[in-house]
Design a protein that fits this description.
By secondary structure, the protein is an alpha/beta fold. The chain contains ten helices and 19 strands. The radius of gyration is 22 Å and the shape is globular.
């Protein structure tokens, strides 16, 4: 506790300077990037376009040059109290391992609790996800796989990005919060991600042991939410990721030390249990004797587990999006669009890798105006995938499904019947 307090106090006195060198508290010695190997670095890229330092990020590309790279967005820990800490975002440990494994690494700043209360910080990170999708060609991002990673409060924010895919609002009792925001110029892009690695994260901040704010009154959580816990349960619940866990969440792995002196290990256990209850691919790694940001958390074995978990998530997504070739055939007959009279722009439509139709019979499924129409009372499962491979929406429907609220873009909607028959249609949403 004292070590973290000293770290936070020192950084605050230095006006959010990019401090490092402390062996604990924020993930080991993080000053500089002497262990990082990269081919190119783009520093202080503003992902919102407002010129604010708290909306800057750094982009690192792997040393081995390729046409494109899968992406991991890694967010620093700071008890939500720092707005310019990307230079100390576990660069020599987590980020170095991700770069070595071939992932492009993005390390963003975000607004602190002093700048704005929740959900501003979540809006910041979702703007980063959209920026990555909107700038794929410029920075060689392979946007078919975008993952989040984060330590401590950065892990908390990353867990919220992972569990709120497809949700526009968070509601608890009389409290409603916007979960998406409108920052930046790429608001039509999806904020969904494909995996997450969480290091020592708070997840349900309502149930965790609160951290006294030694730089002010109350707790760090209270400053982040804008209200202390007593009498404000709903405000704290809408900032807690286990509350949002659902079956369409991406694969998530959690690392937590058994001797964590800042965030009790039960925090990771709670999110893990919620994900398991919804059949989400997840893993919880208990690090014996691990402390909050201690070097024992970042041993080679744990870093390798994190990389392997993301690699497996990439492989699983590729398998799920592209059905086996011996059970499907290419669909060349679909001409429906979301608006009658429109056609899919050839260049964009062609970039959809495969649009498939199963050989098994399936009740008539068609696109009519802004709706997907089944024509029967059967309940169908569906998944809407954007042109870059991101999951935009998933669920079930009867009769018809309203697609009008989707942002503009090219999509594939995959429909599955109770018997397992599957059909995919492509459409252009104006």
């Amino acid at each position: 506790m004292k070590r973290m307090v000293m770290a936070v106090a020192f950084a605050a006195v230095c006006s959010f300077a990019q401090w490092g060198g402390n062996p604990g508290g924020f993930g080991g010695q993080q000053s500089g990037n002497d262990k990082m190997e990269y081919s190119e670095k783009f520093a202080d890229v503003n992902y919102v376009g407002d010129g604010k330092g708290y909306h800057n990020m750094d982009i690192y590309l792997p040393k081995e040059k390729k046409d494109s790279y899968p992406v991991v967005i890694h967010t620093y820990g700071s008890a939500w109290s720092m707005n310019n800490y990307k230079g100390s975002a576990d660069l020599n440990t987590i980020c170095a391992a991700l770069l070595k494994a071939g992932y492009a690494v993005v390390t963003p700043n975000h607004r602190s609790a002093s700048d704005a209360i929740y959900p501003a910080q979540l809006h910041d990170l979702k703007a980063v996800v959209r920026f990555v999708r909107g700038n794929a060609e410029k920075y060689k991002f392979d946007t078919t796989f975008i993952a989040m990673s984060g330590f401590s409060s950065g892990g908390h924010l990353s867990s919220l990005v992972a569990t709120t895919c497809g949700l526009t609002e968070g509601k608890s009792g009389s409290v409603t919060v916007d979960l998406v925001g409108d920052l930046g110029e790429f608001t039509s892009f999806s904020t969904c991600i494909d995996g997450a690695v969480l290091w020592s994260p708070p997840t349900d901040i309502y149930t965790m042991n609160p951290i006294n704010n030694f730089m002010g009154s109350g707790t760090y959580e209270g400053a982040f939410i804008g209200a202390e816990r007593e009498g404000n349960k709903d405000k704290w619940m809408v900032a807690s990721s286990p509350y949002y866990a659902s079956e369409d969440d991406p694969p998530i792995i959690l690392f937590h030390g058994t001797s964590d002196q800042i965030v009790n290990k039960e925090q990771s256990q709670e999110l893990y249990d919620s994900l398991k209850n919804h059949n989400v691919v997840t893993e919880l790694v208990s690090v014996q004797g691990g402390t909050h940001g201690g070097s024992e958390m970042y041993v080679a074995e744990n870093l390798a587990k994190a990389v392997a978990f993301l690699d497996q998530a990439r492989e699983a997504k590729a398998t799920a999006v592209l059905p086996p070739s011996d059970t499907v055939k290419q669909d060349t007959s679909v001409t429906d669009t979301s608006v009658a009279g429109d056609s899919i722009p050839p260049a964009v439509g062609d970039s959809l890798t495969r649009i498939m139709v199963s050989q098994a019979s399936l009740a008539p499924i068609r696109l009519q105006g802004d709706r997907l129409v089944a024509g029967t009372a059967t309940e169908y499962g569906f998944a809407v995938v954007s042109v870059d491979g991101a999951l935009a929406w998933r669920g079930s429907f009867r009769g018809s499904l309203d697609l009008s609220k989707l942002p503009s873009g090219v999509y594939a909607v995959i429909v599955k019947s109770p018997s397992g028959a599957q059909k995919s249609l492509k459409f252009f949403k104006k």
